[in-house]
Amino acid sequence: MKHPETSETSETSGTSERIGRIGSIGPGRPVSAAEPAAVMPRPHRIVEVDALRGFALCGIFLANVLVMAGIEGRGGDGPSASGLDQAAHWLVMMLVQTKFYLLFSFLFGYSTTLQMDSAERDGAPFAPRMLRRLLGLFVLGALHAVLLYPGDILTTYAVLGLVLFAARTVDPARMWRAALRVYGAVAALYLLLGAAVALVDTGGGDEGLSASTAELTAAYRGGPADVVRANMDAWTDILAGLLMMGGMVVAAFLAGFVAGRRRLLTGTGTPDRVARLRRICGWGLAVGLPGGVLMAAGTVGPLGARWEIPMFIVGMLTAPALSGAYACGLLLWFTTPRGARLAARLAPAGRMALTNYLVQSLVMALVFTGYGAALYGRVGAAAVLGGALLFYGCQLLFSARLMERHRLGPVERLLRTVTLWGRPTPRA
């Protein structure tokens, strides 16, 4: 998730210059050269980073809503699912699942370098700020997991962020090699696990799965106490998932930190950067799309249950390639006039991504659990995903309005207060 630190950097790129009013001293009001230096605004945010974060917010929502609706990981679409539901679920598994949390993790690492720069500009030590920030994320994440959505990512970032904190002084070249080694070790373990599962006959487990799904459905359709109890019971599975995905998150943290130190997300319109982005995008699609197809075929169909975990692992290992293709493709698009307009629409949601992420979970809980309509397991994937996209569009509009008037989202302001251990300064 993004961190609500002050403006992320004073660097701007071609895209940032075209939409430089985002993060300026006021909506639509340029800085006058006649204004005294004492009231100059904080440095411009990097619009591309905010826009990528806003884009990742959509992918995270699409992946999470299938879980909250009782579709993903709770027994699948079921025999009553329509062809449209199956197709929608299949596309999300192919293009979305496991791709966007890696993009968020990369941006978390990138933003950490910007927060270090912010602390240096303020003449403040970075370590206390970072540790308070991680503590704040952990508390928010724990409350989020218990009350709203057990698949919370904030606690994971808070715990694994300590690795990034410890490695913050490492040379970027060494850190990049460390990221590759972490990914290599995780890949080797995953491949061994996938091979072992593929060799084991998984038949006969459907009855246990059906009973577990029925219990979970009853809990999420029950009262608030039942929902909280089900969320807490799910923590053992969440911890197992953390162990499984933790290495990938750390690798993405480190890669993002290296990119931040080298400012790889700015100046993307220069010829050498354009050529590099095109290469990464091409290779990412060539590797990531087949992996996504195998993941969808194993988890949604037509492959059998024996191949579900092995194909999911293949999809996880190729997910960084597709995540990179998404990021590079968008960065290339942002250098065009039409792409700059898209970035301007995505960036406000990215600036308050933490607030938007938690609001998404609140709305999902009200719709699908006993907190509200209790539609858990009652709505098909196509309708669920269509509703999620509609709500995300509303978030884009609301975020744009709010960011015209405020520098921080409400939860970002709270976390920033904890990070700086004081009240954030008002918008200039």
Automatic annotation (TrEMBL):
<feature type="domain" description="DUF418">
    <location>
        <begin position="272"/>
        <end position="421"/>
    </location>
</feature>
<feature type="transmembrane region" description="Helical">
    <location>
        <begin position="182"/>
        <end position="200"/>
    </location>
</feature>
<feature type="transmembrane region" description="Helical">
    <location>
        <begin position="130"/>
        <end position="147"/>
    </location>
</feature>
<feature type="transmembrane region" description="Helical">
    <location>
        <begin position="153"/>
        <end position="170"/>
    </location>
</feature>
<feature type="transmembrane region" description="Helical">
    <location>
        <begin position="354"/>
        <end position="373"/>
    </location>
</feature>
<feature type="transmembrane region" description="Helical">
    <location>
        <begin position="51"/>
        <end position="71"/>
    </location>
</feature>
<keyword id="KW-0812">Transmembrane</keyword>
<keyword id="KW-0472">Membrane</keyword>
<dbReference type="InterPro" id="IPR052529">
    <property type="entry name" value="Bact_Transport_Assoc"/>
</dbReference>
<feature type="compositionally biased region" description="Low complexity">
    <location>
        <begin position="7"/>
        <end position="29"/>
    </location>
</feature>
<feature type="transmembrane region" description="Helical">
    <location>
        <begin position="379"/>
        <end position="398"/>
    </location>
</feature>
<keyword id="KW-1133">Transmembrane helix</keyword>
<dbReference type="Pfam" id="PF04235">
    <property type="entry name" value="DUF418"/>
</dbReference>
<protein>
    <submittedName>
        <fullName>DUF418 domain-containing protein</fullName>
    </submittedName>
</protein>
<feature type="transmembrane region" description="Helical">
    <location>
        <begin position="238"/>
        <end position="259"/>
    </location>
</feature>
<feature type="transmembrane region" description="Helical">
    <location>
        <begin position="309"/>
        <end position="334"/>
    </location>
</feature>
<dbReference type="InterPro" id="IPR007349">
    <property type="entry name" value="DUF418"/>
</dbReference>
<feature type="transmembrane region" description="Helical">
    <location>
        <begin position="91"/>
        <end position="110"/>
    </location>
</feature>
<feature type="transmembrane region" description="Helical">
    <location>
        <begin position="280"/>
        <end position="303"/>
    </location>
</feature>
<feature type="region of interest" description="Disordered">
    <location>
        <begin position="1"/>
        <end position="37"/>
    </location>
</feature>
